[in-house]
Design brief:
There is one protein chain. With 106 residues, this protein is of the alpha+beta class. It is built from 4 helices and 5 strands, in the order αβααββαββ. It has a single domain (2-104), classed as Arc Repressor Mutant, subunit A (Orthogonal Bundle). The chain is 63% helix and 12% strand. Strands 1-3-2 form a 3-stranded antiparallel sheet.
Length: 106
């Protein structure tokens, strides 16, 4: 009987860890998408090439440190080399917004 309790406890513990990780991954994906969409809108408007973590934070209602963490992990978001907390849409997303009204944005 005690073997079943130990196995049940281990199974339950693993289930909790798996579910917690799945929830964290879903929240990260949701928040990363919010940041990415904001950066795409900023680029599409032609106003900004780079946005600061603070500006992104103000619009998305995420903390500055969370914005920086998610931007650094996102495959289509690039950091400005000279400035630690300046971000823009990069990679394949850049090609979608490359030209606007006959002038190059980058």
């Amino acid at each position: 009987m005690s073997n079943y309790i130990v196995v049940s406890a281990i199974t339950g513990g693993c289930s909790v860890v798996f579910i917690s990780q799945a929830i964290k991954t879903a929240k990260d994906r949701r928040d990363s998408n919010r940041i990415y969409q904001f950066l795409c809108r900023s680029l599409k408007d032609g106003q900004y090439r780079f946005r600061s973590s603070e500006a992104i934070s103000a619009v998305t209602n995420l903390g500055v440190s969370r914005v920086a963490e998610l931007c650094s992990k996102h495959g289509d978001i690039e950091r400005k080399e000279q400035h630690r907390h300046m971000w823009r849409v990069g990679g394949s997303a850049n090609r979608r917004f490359k030209l606007k009204k006959g002038r190059q944005l980058f």
